[in-house]
Amino acid sequence: LTEDDVYCRCLSQTLCHTSTPVTVGVYAPCARRLYSLLDKVTGFMKEEMARREEAELLRSRQRPRSPEGWGLLLALWYLAFYKPVITELHLRRRNMEFIFIRFSAWQYAGCDKLWAGLVTTLCDSIRHHFGALPLSVYHVMGSRPRYAAGFSQREWVLKRGTCLRLWGLLAVLSAGLTALLVALLVPGVKENHALKVIGSTVASLSGSGLVLGAASILKNLFVSEKKKIERLTNSEKFTSQLGFMSKVRGEVEALVGFLAFMEIFERRQLRVVLEITSLDICYPEKVAGVLNAMNTLLSDANSPFIFLLAVDPSVIVPCLEQTSCLRGLADNGYLYLNRTVTLPFSIPEMGARSKLQCLEEAVQTREDLMYRIITRNVGRS
């Protein structure tokens, strides 16, 4: 192992045991080295994830579920008719799934609101990971988990109100369709216009409730959270109102609730690792906007977010001190950065073994490097 491997393994072990939300400042002066370190941290966390899955399977004899194939139908069934419950059994689970999202601030540096790019990248990645259909159904019919009463181990509770309303609509719809068919097909009753009107009215009213529910799901299926936030940020009339940030925060809270639901369904802990890079080459006001978004929008007490802020502090601090967000903090950029970062992790200078490894990779051919990457991924899988 090189010195960088030791640093990254220590950081990955820390992230696997720390509580969320947490913001980790990965400080290093060389941008190219930061990307290499983030890749190492990702690899070590995936190894820990696989090890925990095997240990949990041996302990509980329960295999985790996935919203794919038949699992997707099961997830939709639970979303529609059951409420998730956080039990002692779930709290004892130690297996985790890390969802890695890399946000390059430079790709959104040209837009007016760089922080909106951070939120839309998060929403779009979660939607792509779990699929658009489960997230759309959750927006309409899903329930956020609640804690169990006492020592109950039931992780799912039937939605009696939803079931009664659904069966009531289906019963009324069936009665209306039956009356309409009788009025249209049965001889001697065809001339009864009142029965036709009653049957068609009852069928249309009861069916409209089902159609509205299906329309809401289809609307959320085609209009993603990313499009909603982009529409809000593009509206000059709405951005001047106080309700703008609450709307964006509402989308993020719905996303956090969906992740909490999927934790119970998949029988594992979920952690979203958001790697923020290239922030130190953006304009000062936009840098402050991203940090404020991390503090205000994405730091809910129950959110499963791990932020890896990969920056050079010697560049970020002067940017922050040029903005208006430091009023009242004695114009101290380091103080503001320390209030944002929960766990600072400074990377020391590159050691001898790390330098030899970089030199070896530099003199190798492209085919040798690709072969090394492939063999490394096979070993981790």
TrEMBL record:
Pfam families referenced in this protein's UniProt entry, alphabetically: KAP_NTPase (PF07693)
Transmembrane segments annotated in the record for this chain: 164-186, 198-218
Start and end residues of each KAP NTPase domain: 83-367
InterPro entries in the record: KAP_P-loop, NTPase_KAP_P-loop
Signal peptide residues on this chain, from the entry's feature table: none
Keyword ATP-binding: no
Swiss-Prot/TrEMBL keywords: Membrane, Transmembrane, Transmembrane helix
Entry keyword annotation includes Transmembrane: yes
Name the UniProt record assigns to this protein: NKPD1 protein
Taxonomic source organism: Nothoprocta ornata
